[in-house]
Amino acid sequence: MSSRPKHLIRQFVLACLVFLAWAPAASAAGLPRLPFEDYKLANGLRVVLLENHLSPLVTVEVWYHVGSKNEDEGRRGFAHLFEHLMFSATRNQRRGQFSHQIVRSGGITNAYTTEDATVVWETIPSNFLRVALWLEADRMRNLEITQADLRREIEVVKEERRLRFDNVPYGTLVETLYEKAFTVHPYRRVPIGSMEDLARSRLDEVREFYRTQFVPNNATLVIVGDFNPEQTRGWIEDYFSPIPPGKHLSAKPIPEEPEQTRGRFLRFKKDVALPALVYGYHMPADGSADSYALKLLSKILSDGESSRLVRRLVVGKRIALEVDSVANFTEHPNLFVLYAILHEGVTLAEGEQEFRAELERLKQEPLSSEELAGAQNRMLRDLALERRNTRSLADLLGYATVILKDTGSINREVEKFLAVSPEEVLRVARKYLVSENLTLIEVQPDAEEREASDPFSTPGEGRTEKLSEEPPAQ
Asked: Can you state the angle between helices 422-432 and 369-385, rounded to 10 degrees?
């Protein structure tokens, strides 16, 4: 038996085990309801608890509702910087002691930053929960950032950018797409941040960012796993309730991105081996009425060998090495992103023609019930697998609470996906995947000559980047 069928069988068995473990509480749609507890402390800290005794582990996450969209101009990258600075010394611990205690207990710890939030987390043996809560409360209240900490973590962020963006093929394409697709909304800058802004940052600015953003009334504590709820509530009250709320918490309004009414196009040369196409269509925020159909549309386009773009561009025409679609849903409206890396010898015009043809077919031909059911089944598979451990469950609950502002939505999403009709998928494709709503980036290998036939009005020349205000033909 090949490795791929074995992998699929393991996924299926795992999903079944998760379902059976929760079977007494299963919903009619086939996934269990999660019996979470949701409350607030007097200082504004939101607490979400989910008791789960599948293993003797517990995950603790603290979601700080500050991401790259909340940074002031000149402070781009502060949220991501704090992903690293949160492991600095406190009044009670030396630098590195937080991670050392978690690892010594047999646990793991890390953090991540998005456009909307900064999340710190640890998964630990259940008997270490009390210590983990004390550690999190300590760094929420007592973080001590020195100039040496700041310099060191800025260099770490710079190296991360080199590894993930600057020194990998096509690494800066997404960054370029967002710079061109957004004009006023801060989603136009990716969470990695500006190295120039970080280099200019002052210690007093960084400390002020901590005092105003990393506070209990801007945070949600999520605990999932093997714990005693009554005992845990007592520990939370003991360690977190004495922390005062932020007095200067900035809640400045985020500018709304104006509706895009003309397509945008950019071509540039890059030192890569193969040509590439990147499409970005504006779409609504996560949790909106259209978000469920758009997520299923992404699966129809690129999830699996039978998906439309894979079947046409990769398997059938063999003009693309790789294609994908990502509905990048966030707290505010974001982008439905599609990309293709073309085979050597395939021109950008040829790739664009095939891409357009498949998208147009999607918008013109009725979607079969069988194709939609396949996408829904794959979505339910993903939802089941996301519930397979305490860490992923904590992520789901934190996201629903902080980003969707509705913890209970986690128990309704299956019904939402199953309620989507073929007509609704057709409608959202026609509404959002249109040329006037598109930002298209074409990447040409630096060594190649531009093809003679150019379907666009104002291509870039050489390494210069010129954005055309004329919509690409679509």
From this structure: 90
